[in-house]
Structures are given as structure tokens and as C-alpha cells.
Amino acid sequence: MKDELEDFVNRNRAAFDDLEAPRDSWSVIENTLRFKSQSLWQSVAIWRAAAVLFMATTAYFMIATSMTKRSTVHEQHVASVALREFQDVETYYVRQIDDKVKLIDNFKQSDGLNGFTHDFHQLEAMYMVLKEQMKTNPSDKVKDALVLNLLVRIDLLNQQLHKLEDGHEADKEENKDKDRSV
Question: Which structural domain range is residue 78 located in?
């Protein structure tokens, strides 16, 4: 194809050389290529301003997202620390509660225990609810409520043990008095 075009130009060279373009032809070509009026969207300043606005908005959202992630990570760290601290405290107090319950069971006296067992079971039920709350949404407030529940149960057990020991001492004194009188 290149050879054909070259052959055509060579054969018709004389026809091309004798013709000249009219003098105003370049101005006609230039006017047809030039834009009639520049619209607002073709302005370079507008595009620059839009680019700056886009960059600023993007930077703002990136920083905001970063800060949100950091606060979420911090909250999760605080929650995990609260959970670990509570597990240590829980182990200690649950062991104390178990020991005191065994001591009460050793007395083998059931009179006067109905009110105690009812209160104790209510505290245990509240403890289970709080423990579920700690698993789903660990916080210092929930941890404090759980520790308070454990302390109240220990206090209740101590009071009951005291009553049982006093009753046991009174029974011993009564038995001694009966033995002396016989």
C-alpha cells in the first residue's frame, strides 16, 4: 500500500505543484478548530479546585476512620484487661465461697437455712446474668458488679456460719448443763 501511494504521488506530482492553497485557508482551518466559547467545566482553575477539594475530603475520611479504629482497639484492650483481672478475682472468691458452703454443709442443720438458701440462690442467679453480660460486653462496671456480688455472697455465708457456730456452741453448753444435772 505504501508503494501504491508513493507511485500515485510520483505520477501526479505536477498536478500538486502547480496548485497553491488560497491565502485565507489557514485562518478558516484555525477558526474551525478553535472552540467557540469556553464553558465553565473546561476551565483549568475549576478542575484544580475540584482536585484540592477531593484530596482534602479523602484525607479527612482517612483520618476519621483511623481514629475510629484506634478508639475501638483501645476499648477492646480495656475490655480484655478487665476480663483477665476479673477471672483472677473470680477464681479467688469462688474458692472461698465453695469452702464456706462446705463448712455450712458440715453442720448438717437445716433449721433456719431456708431464708439463707433463697437469698444465696438469688445472688447466684444475678451473678450468672452479670457473667453473661461480662462475656458479651466486658467493662469495669460489670466487673465491679460481679466482684460486689461475690463479696455479698461471702458475707452472707459468713453470717450464716456465725449463726450456725453460735447455735452449735449453745447446743454444747446445753448438753454440758444436762450432763451436770444428771
Answer: 74-181
Give this prediction's pTM.
0.48
User: Does residue 49 fall inside a structural domain?
Assistant: no
Tell me which DSSP letter residue 40 carries: G
> Does residue 97 sit in the same domain as residue 169?
yes
Per-residue pLDDT at 55: 92
| Cα dihedral sign, 21-25-27-29 | negative
Length of the chain measured in residues = 182
Specify the DSSP class assigned to residue 89: H
Q: Which residue has the cell 456452741?
A: 169
pLDDT tens-digit map of 58-95? 888 888 887 776 666 667 677 777 777 778 888 888 89
For the chain, what is the domain count? 2
CB 98 within 8 A of CB 154: no
Q: What stretches of 24-113 show up as alpha helix (H) in DSSP?
A: 25-33, 44-107
Residue 126 and residue 156: Cα distance in Å, rounded? 15
127 Rama class: left (phi>0) / alpha (psi -120 to 50) / beta: alpha
- The half-sphere exposure of 105 on its side-chain side, counting CA atoms within 13 A, is 6
The three three-digit cell numbers of residue 89, written as one number: 478475682
Q: Cα–Cα distances in Å, from 130 out to 56, 79, 144, 148?
A: 46, 15, 10, 11
